[in-house]
């Protein structure tokens, strides 16, 4: 985890249910804080402030929340988007403790060039993040995946190939596919055309009359 401290100031809210749309029109995001079985705290914050924090913290970096005089260390557990406007419309924060392990979603960073792409092949990304477990002080901002071994069609890398710090446990299945090498659509189309041409030529040869 990087040493940068990410902070966010929120306010408690009493507005619930249908009244939440009025908050959103004012440029506010409704949110809730879950804290180890205690009653949830309903809060709200400025839209742009949250978007900045989310861009830096993702779902893996601790955030120092202040709600009035109260302070909590949290992670962003869930972010709900409006399906039409694609704007954040609700956030779930999870309070964390330094002496308890936390499950978070950590992004994958590809390291190095992909030789197969230079050869005109296509690298398909299947996973962009994995779920991990660690104490808050050990939470990684990213997990690296070295891609220099991707040379030919069929080459692939899985979760088992990630570079994982000693104090971090990856919860996503080790065999889960992260990236694989395939032919491009143009290459597949070209091969199909060549096969069809060969089949057609063979069919014409078989159907032609024998010379007398």
Question: What would you note in describing this structure?
Answer:
The chain is of the alpha+beta class and 212 residues long. The chain folds into two domains: 91 residues, Ribosomal Protein L25, Chain P, CATH 2.40.240; 85 residues, Ribosomal protein L25, C-terminal domain (RNA Polymerase Alpha Subunit, Chain A, domain 2). The chain has four helices and 13 strands. The strands form three sheets. Strands 1-3-2-6-5-4 form a six-stranded mixed beta barrel. A hairpin with a 2-residue loop joins strand 4 and strand 5. It is globular. The protein starts with 5 loop residues before the first strand and ends in a 5-residue tail after the last helix.
How much is the radius of gyration in Å?
26 Å
Distance between the termini: 84 Å
Ranges where pLDDT stays below 50 over 5 or more residues in a row are none
Oligomerization category of the chains in this entry = single chain
Indicate the proportion of strand residues: 35-45%
What is the fold named in CATH at topology level of the largest domain? Ribosomal Protein L25, Chain P
Major beta sheet summary: 6 strands, mixed, barrel
Structural class: alpha+beta
Helical content (DSSP H or I, runs of 4+): 10-25%
Name given to the CATH architecture of the largest domain: Beta Barrel
The helix count comes to 4
Q: Strand order within the widest sheet?
A: 1-3-2-6-5-4
Number of separate domains: 2
Taken from the alpha-carbon principal axes, the silhouette is globular
Which whole number gives the mean pLDDT?
87
**What is the tally of beta strands?**
13
From N to C, what is the helix and strand string? EHEEHEEEEHEEEEEEH
